[in-house]
Amino acid sequence: MVGAGMVGNRFADELGRLAPHIDVDLLGEEAYEPYNRVMLTELIAGRIDLAGLTLPTPDSGRVRVRAGVRATEIDRDRRVVVTADGDFAYDILVLATGAHARVVPVPGLRDGLPRGAYVVRRLDDARDIAAATLNAHRAVVIGAGPLGLETACALRHRGVGVTLVAASTLLSRDLDVEVAGVVADQAVALGIDVVTEAEIASVGVREGRVDAVHLANGRSIPAEILVLACGSAPATTLAAEAGLETNVGIVVGADLRTAVDPSICAIGDCAETLAGVSGLVAPGWAQARALAGSIAHDRRVDLPPVAGSAMRLKAVGMSVVTIGVRASTAGPIDRVVVLADRSARRHIEIVTRGDTLVGVTCVGAPDLAAHLSTQLDRPGMLPADPIHLLMGTSGMPVPESNSPTTMPMSTTVCRCNGVTKGDLVHAWDEGATTVESLATSTLATTGCGGCTKLVGGIIDWLRVSDPPSQHEGSDRETTVPQW
Ligand SMILES: Cc1cc2nc3c(=O)[nH]c(=O)nc-3n(C[C@H](O)[C@H](O)[C@H](O)COP(=O)(O)OP(=O)(O)OC[C@H]3O[C@@H](n4cnc5c(N)ncnc54)[C@H](O)[C@@H]3O)c2cc1C
Question: N or C: which end of the chain has fewer CB within 10 A?
Fold first, then answer.
């Protein structure tokens, strides 16, 4: 296994559980145990520490995590992976090398990053940015996707003056233009200077250190810290040098294996499947689970269908959630209900299709977002008038179906890992009675962490309805982890 990131670690964990007789060497270039990359901007903000990035680690004694070991070559003739620490033999090689952060190729950044300029991909990047905030007053963040916005909010939370520079509108891939305007209002209210529709001409560098960002319209923005959040590119070099087919990513078939050498597979951000490259953790975890099952049971890969798009911002002082269909992507038979309240920097939008909620976009309404996301894709759950779905925030009672008690067992609680209420109840019955132990046994809460409050609510309900004293060996403490 090359790459001990979020997907590589999950694959090793799954394979260790399903096939404990298989030896796995998990080679990771970074000097750390696998960690939750998705939460790095929370580390920059100072809202979590290193312990808050902990991922469940492979439980099998046959999985050896080799932190700080970089694969430099795949020798396919000898079936070994070459590293500075020696060769690692394989019967099956799984590549989960992830992605690199993109750097905009403008003057000032073409010969490598000057001091004060950072990308946000690795734990070291996040720690360096957090350290730089101690002596800096002005930062510029280039890129206004989720990563750019989260970083801008994190830096602002640290007390740094921030300018967020976007090529178009904020979160343009995820939000319609009008909704993006509400998010921009929220950013401005946090004290962030927002510049949209901007083109970067160059980055000013003085004595090897960033000092400004120059825009094509002539404006110059002073910067002591520059963060580039301009997307990522799959890490394909190792595969390409081994003669494997690469395009945007490492090209694999429906079985997640490369055509040139079926003993080599690729999953996660580095892989280009029939659906393209993903860049998100949930599809990578689905691939990890499917490939581990296929290898353990010697059967074909059984990939679940790709879930609809979902984005939940983890930004200090801002709440943005969008899942599924939006107003602009709704079809002729869809019904769109919008509560637009720009002066309160709030926008709530739902899309229904027949008797099913198929889209939710909530800006500035976190509780309603949490409620509505549990109602998605559940046929027959709509009230006669869908406007009643939006009433939880206006002093009216939250609809009964939001309660852990009445919520159907099939409700998806953790969207990153596809964990339902039924899965949590089953794990509770097996003795997992804390957020941590439920995370270990079901993996709920181990992705973006957005479901942690809901999992806590389900625990509270189970403690009353099915007290843990009934379960031998139960871990009674109920603590909510920091992520
Ligand atoms: C700050 C941030 C926030 C994010 N937020 C979200 C989010 O909210 N939701 C979401 O779905 N996704 C999010 N993502 C994307 C998500 O983190 C990735 O989709 C996920 O990490 C992919 O996992 P992976 O294992 O494929 O790659 P990675 O997690 O990048 O891991 C790849 C690992 O392989 C190692 N490696 C590479 N080459 C070698 C080599 N030759 N030898 C040894 N090791 C090697 C790398 O060092 C790295 O540790 C975020 C990403 C970042 C950076």
Answer: C
